[in-house]
Amino acid sequence: xxxxxxxxxxxxxxxxxxxxxxxxxxxxxxxxxxxxxxxxxxxxxxxxxxxxxxxxxxxxxxxxxxxxxxxxxxxxxxxxxxxxxxxxxxxxxxxxxxxxxxxxxxxxxxxxxxxxxxxxxxxxxxxxxxxxxxxxxxxxxxxxxxxxxxxxxxxxxxxxxxxxxxxxxxxxxxxxxxxxxxxxxxxxxxxxxxxxxxxxxxxxxxxxxxxxxxxxxxxxxxxxxxxxxxxxxxxxxxxxxxxxxxxxxxxxxxxxxxxxxxxxxxxxxxxxxxxxxxxxxxxxxxxxxxxxxxxxxxxxxxxxxxxxxxxxxxxxxxxxxxxxxxxxxxx
Length: 331
Prior knowledge:
There is one protein chain. Helix content is 45%, strand content 15%. The protein is α/β, with parallel strands linked by helices. The chain has one domain: Alpha-Beta Barrel (TIM Barrel), CATH 3.20.20. It has an 8-stranded parallel sheet with strand order 1-2-3-4-5-6-7-8, with helices on both faces. The protein starts with 7 loop residues before the first strand and ends with a helix. Zn(2+) binds at residues 12, 14, 197, 278. Its cofactor is Zn(2+). The active site is at residue 200.
């Protein structure tokens, strides 16, 4: 298979983990922001997480630096545009980008301004390239429940205008779902779709609770359903789609080697999996690379890839017109 020419769908990609190093340097110079290095290679050493990370928390430390340059409307528009531009060059046809609006209010922007700027960057890219997209708003599990309500409320006006879903992300602790039942319930009442980071850091039961307590339609990562039979069974029975990110999962030590990644076993057993980058910069990856890695380990056949593409289209939070458009690229 020619992995670059394959049409691709990506459902799990973080905006703040996918900045070009050159862009960080350029914005920092314009805004007078101090960086540990103004050399591209030197900066990438600080941005890219090693495969030898000890944990998810160590991996997440790489996000503090990009956030320094994501505090103005102009920068947020530019960074979003460039992410979609990079994805389009990989032949990604549809991309769902997620970010936590509250992280970008440190210099005076309000949540609505942050969301609007990201949508504008996405729309500009859609007008320039053969790609379509939507936005997922993240609530940080490290913040209070009140802040989650704030994101849900302030993002509501953008539903149907670029925003499609809500997510919970950041450090994963056992039982986190219980704290966020009310804000996620409200989000669903407003019309948000629901995807939840769970089962990324060794706690398969969190996936079970994300589905049962929060009504998750998709799960970010979900690797550790392999160690929780109840979670495995509910994902399979309800056809909950897993947004899997192989390189990221190696870095966070969800698995230790690509050969141990459960993505292909899940796929063979009828669990709906999708292939994603998670963070293009932090994981030093692309969709082309992720597909290549899965193929290299598990000899992904054309029919396997076709099914994963179909899974991704069907599980996307896009409207029917966009889904049908994505299907036209399957030969």
